[in-house]
Amino acid sequence: xxxxxxxxxxxxxxxxxxxxxxxxxxxxxxxxxxxxxxxxxxxxxxxxxxxxxxxxxxxxxxxxxxxxxxxxxxxxxxxxxxxxxxxxxxxxxxxxxxxxxxxxxxxxxxxxxxxxxxxxxxxxxxxxxxxxxxxxxxxxxxxxxxxxxxxxxxxxxxxxxxxxxxxxxxxxxxxxxxxxxxxxxxxxxxxxxxxxxxxxxxxxxxxxxxxxxxxxxxxxxxxxxxxxxxxxxxxxxxxxxxxxxxxxxxxxxxxxxxxxxxxxxxxxxxxxxxxxxxxxxxxxxxxxxxxxxxxxxxxxxxxxxxxxxxxxxxxxxxxxxxxxxxxxxxxxxxxxxxxxxxxxxxxxxxxxxxxxxxxxxxxxxxxxxxxxxxxxxxxxxxxxxxxxxxxxxxxxxxxxxxxxxxxxxxxxxxxxxxxxxxxxxxxxxxxxxxxxxxxxxxxxxxxxxxxxxxxxxxxxxxxxxxxxxxxxxxxxxxxxxxxxxxxxxxxxxxxxxxxxxxxxxxxxxxxxxxxxxxxxxxxxxxxxxxxxxxxxxxxxxxxxxxxxxxxxxxxxxxxxxxxxxxxxxxxxxxxxxxx
Amino acid sequence: xxxxxxxxxxxxxxxxxxxxxxxxxxxxxxxxxxxxxxxxxxxxxxxxxxxxxxxxxxxxxxxxxxxxxxxxxxxxxx
Amino acid sequence: xxxxxxxxxxxxxxxxxxxxxxxxxxxxxxxxxxxxxxxxxxxxxxxxxxxxxxxxxxxxxxxxxxxxxxxxxxxxxxxxxxxxxxxxxxxxxxxxxxxxxxxxxxxxxxxxxxxxxxxxxxxxxxxxxxxxxxxxxxxxxxxxxxxxxxxxxxxxxxxxxxxxxxxxxxxxxxxxxxxxxxxxxxxxxxxxxxxxxxxxxxxxxxxxxxxxx
Lengths: 579, 78, 213
What we know:
The complex is a heterotrimer of chains A (579), B (78) and C (213). By secondary structure, chain A is mostly helical. In chain A, 76% of the residues lie in helices and 0% in strands. Chain A has one domain (39-68, 140-543): Up-down Bundle (Cytochrome C Oxidase, Chain A), CATH 1.20.210.10. Chain C has 213 residues and is mainly alpha-helical. Chain C contains seven helices and four strands, in the order αββαααααββα. Chain C has helices at 2-30, 54-65, 85-88, 121-124, 127-139, 141-144, 189-200; strands at residues 36-39, 45-48, 157-161, 183-187. The chains are: A mainly alpha (579), B mainly alpha (78), C mainly alpha (213). Chains in contact: A-B, A-C, B-C. Chains A and C meet through helix 2, helix 5, helix 8, helix 9 and helix 10 of A and helix 1 and helix 2 of C.
């Protein structure tokens, strides 16, 4: 703390103290060094993030479609697509006019554009229903049947969004923490391209009926080679970066990132061989399948999410983690115990009971890393909760960190046989999976990106209002989603275990909860649209240029001029004028 | 043949990745990674972003004293 | 130093053990389960299980391509699990075990029961009557099961104008599901294969010694 007081007190330009001068030099050097490191990460990280954002939108679309189809089985996606395309065509001219207006603030522009789109959609809905009387041929077509949209949704979330978001985060975090500029940017961009070609081919394949119906490995057999090559490039980059690092201490986030980068290619390759290319006999496939599917969460998404939180929370509030010792314990115990945890997905099934028992023990051991991480994240925040009002990234990350504690405790309990007898085979599991992959991982990654992107592009976020909208839509959405499915799932399980309870009645009882789930899902999807708009605006350079210690640069002549003239121009206009 | 592929993949990866985990642990002990936790936990802070400085805010938020930006002032002078 | 070595060995063993325990051990233990000779309910002696052939095997591919297993499991759990409801609901006469699945690639155990379990669906809808029911149910689930949330698989059927005599395999649809007069709904080869698969899908064909409880 002493150091920071000195900094705040003595570095004004007027002080001609030799110490202050040296300190200023040092600050200058540190800021420049970090800016150089960030700038080397810019293209690769943004390339992966762009892919992630693109597929996030599609994953949301397919997720929402899947969710709606569960309570409206005859729902036809083509109506939505038609509505989307026609309202876009109708509203784009208006949007262009709005965007060109000189009198409107950016927030107002975004608001008006949204209004134009909604109005166009409403107009078209009226026209098509009562004026043109458009009807699609009765049956939606094979590509949009529930089973295929569900496979598409899961694959896109796991590989399109989750993995790419994780790698985007890694490509920024690892160089920063190693204090060495990112190397081989072209190889990493090529890896992103290969990955996205693979995802695209995979989605088309699933929709065309080539999906494998192996959960988490649904992509057709021609896709995994793309993904393996891409993961291998990233892992190789990780090794070389590690050997080149300038920071002698390996911060806990780095441990998590490196662990994740090695576990994922390994898990994926083994799982693909045993499940797709050279399928083992019968139930062995299931064991391997769930060992893999659970570890994608536990040894790939979780380390990235937890690791990123270990960096973002202390960094944003300017306070080291509560107990660094615990954080290291947490990392190693995760590495040791998590990989045992997947078998409860097969509880009661035709696998040897000892496997489920062993897995339950593993799940219980998970309380060690979970408590270590929970104590650390929450105790670090203690006394700094006020910062949540001011920092967008902190909001998302802390939401994710709290969810992590909750979802992990829930997961450990779910592995118990008595609990699974009810919860298994119901929507309870679906709620749990979303709490983990969304409430925890996705929310933390959003937080990371709110911190990372401005430092890569040198561009502030265009609209605080949109960020707040994104946060509230996603957080309220996932809470609705999780609550409704958990309640529904518990009743489903109780009713299925009662042999006299009619199955069809159980199904009807789900309806109100499934509708709630679609509402929650729609809110999350809207939140993702807000995120995509913010991301695109940032990339396109709309909004004010960034200033401050994290993105070190000289003021532009236009800004200096504006200051001298006492101009009232907004930073955005200054930034535009300076181009 | 299929058997051989599976055996090779699974056993091979256990040796490879188990070995990697050992080496990583051994290295971090030898390297003193677990020695000074106080210092280690502060390795993410720099001279210009020291402990005590808040580094993120909404773009339109007024600057509190915590986000006061001294290094850019320093840079203008240099 | 020797303590470090012990610690490291312990760590490696723990870390590698999940691979050994959850992938390798089941592989060694279960990969060589063989079919055995048994007697079916009708008193026929045969080898069980047998790989699917012909139309049923193609039907299984249709089942996979359309992700049926995301709503329908194919496993019967022990009578000591979940109140024994699987068996009491008449979804099967015994629990399913490893041997029941040795020819399944990929295996379709499933993890969700939005719809009922299908491990032995052939026992519930057997013969020509069962096939007809399945066709009608695939085409118009709510005609057969009011309140069902199953999607219609109408894309596996073809609507065509009746020329001359109506086809023998045309679906006997009623009410709002019936096509307009002069038209009929007939199954495509995919639909026929899928229904064929459902009408042989029986994981309880013979009692297995290891499934006794």
